[in-house]
Structures are given as structure tokens and as C-alpha cells.
């Protein structure tokens, strides 16, 4: 499904900025994880459009851990997504478009500097 992934985690000292960036880019929604909050942790569950439950989380590090994000998102158009990332203040670190050997893909950095990937599956061969 476009703009969705399996479970993942984003660790950042700027969880509000991460919510704004990913919410605007992919249409994701965010809710506080009440169980984590009871344990003193700021963890936000991430919902993806069309998904029947959370698919990831944002861990607010408070600066106690380095930021990280390692996941790939299926997108309808890798080139267009790269342009949108840059428009939102992110960075394209590598991209391979018109890939004859597989999907178009790119490695990107969000506004907190976290690395993530996007890809567009190859179109099926015409019979």
C-alpha cells in the first residue's frame, strides 16, 4: 500500500518537528502511547493512511540517545517524493531513478537529520 511501511521507530530530540515533517509528507497521524507515558517515556504511535493500526513510533530521546530512523516507505513516485522532501526542508542523499534492475529508490534525510528510504516498485512487464 502506498505511503505505508511495517513497524519502525524514529528517535529524535525534536518529536514535534518529526510529527510535522512526516505528517505533511505522508499524511501520517500521531497519538501518545499511554502505556509508555505511564512508565515516564514520551513515545508516540504512528498511524498510516488506510492501515488498521499503528505501524511505528516516535521515541522522544530528550537528547539522551542519538537520533535514528531506518525504514523504507513505498511511494507512488520516487522523484516526486524527493522533490517534496526538499520542499519540506529535508535532503536527498542518494537516488536511483529509471532503475532497469529493480525499483526506483532514494535515501533521504528528514529535518532532524534522520536517514530513511523511499521506493517505487517496478512496473510489471507488459505481455
TrEMBL record:
Pfam families membership: Glyoxalase
PROSITE patterns for this protein: VOC
SUPFAM superfamilies with a match to the protein in the record: Glyoxalase/Bleomycin resistance protein/Dihydroxybiphenyl dioxygenase
Transmembrane residue ranges: none
Domain of life, source organism: Bacteria
Domain VOC: start-end pairs: 4-121
Family matches, as PANTHER family: GB|AAF24581.1, GLYOXALASE-RELATED
This protein's name: VOC family protein
Organism of provenance: Streptosporangium fragile
